[in-house]
Design a protein that fits this description.
This protein is α/β, with parallel strands linked by helices and about 250 residues long. The chain is about 40% helix and about 15% strand. The chain has helices at about 20-30, 40-50, 65-80, 100-120, 150-170, 185-190, 200-205, 215-230, and strands at about 10, 35-40, 55-60, 80-85, 125-135, 175-180, 240. The chain has a seven-stranded parallel β-sheet, with helices on both faces. Helix 4 runs parallel beside helix 5 (about 150-170). The protein is globular, with a radius of gyration of 17 Å. The chain starts with 8 loop residues before the first strand and ends in a 7-residue tail after the last strand.
């Protein structure tokens, strides 16, 4: 690894497993001090052990502003400011119209929309010059599937946050971009399959990707590193698809 993020401080929410974990691991390997969050202490403990390097875990639910206050108090106490924010916490369920419950809608919007807003807003006073804000989106912002209306709506909101916030933060040397993965081999993706049908799910998703496979979390992490780095210093307000071409054709 290089030292692309040497002496930088990063926050990655929802970094206990999957894409968030891969991003945090790559950032730490590139020299950053990384604050990670998640809701389950045992999962965070395992993540810290896997990430290695300079990492600090804060148990937090991104849908709860008070938890985010605790996160940013820890960042402030370190005294180095904040260079990268990855608002990665997210989730949702597949449910056809006619079967959507109020609880499902509220929970999905609380994490994927409310959580993103306050993860970013509460970070603003700590941001250093040339900071990078990365919002985790999804190819569902443009390419939908049956049963994914609520999840897709939240990710369309995330896309438009980047557009608007790039204007709100104009002149402040802060970039805001969306990183939208395609199907990626994570525990969250496999959890969508019935027991024993995980490979069938992966094969079906791979068939819709021009590269003929699903992505690896490390590939999404590589794209996040680019958006976090000085190499992306003139990249602002974009949706960066890392999807093997799925949403492009």
């Amino acid at each position: 690894m290089t030292s692309t993020l040497k002496d930088k401080t990063a926050v990655v929410t929802g970094a206990g497993t999957g894409i968030g974990l891969a991003i945090a691991k790559r950032f730490a390997a590139e020299g950053a001090h990384v604050f990670i969050t998640g809701r389950r202490k045992e999962v965070l403990d395992d993540a810290v052990a896997e990430i290695g390097g300079s990492v600090q875990a804060i148990r937090a639910d991104s849908s709860k502003p008070a938890d985010l206050d605790a996160l940013y108090r820890a960042v402030e106490e370190r005294g180095k400011g904040l260079d990268v924010v990855v608002a990665n916490s997210g989730g949702g369920v597949s449910q056809l119209l006619g079967e959507i419950t109020e609880e499902q809608l509220d929970a999905t919007f609380a994490t994927n929309v409310k959580g993103v807003v306050f993860t970013v807003q509460k970070a603003l006073p700590l941001l250093n010059d040339n900071a990078s804000i990365i919002l985790t989106g999804s190819t569902t912002s443009t390419r939908v599937a049956p049963g994914m209306s609520i999840y897709a709506a939240t990710k369309a909101a995330v896309r438009n946050f980047a557009r608007t916030w790039a204007l709100d933060l104009a002149g402040k040397s802060v970039r805001v971009n969306v990183l939208s993965p395609g199907p990626t081999h994570t525990p969250g993706l496999l959890g969508l399959a019935d027991p024993g049908a995980e490979q069938e799910l992966l094969d079906g998703m791979a068939a819709a990707v021009p590269l003929g496979r699903v992505g690896a979390p490390s590939e999404i992490a590589g794209a996040a590193l680019f958006l976090a780095s000085a190499d992306a210093s003139f990249v602002n307000g974009v949706e960066f698809f890392v999807d093997g071409g799925q949403a492009q054709v």
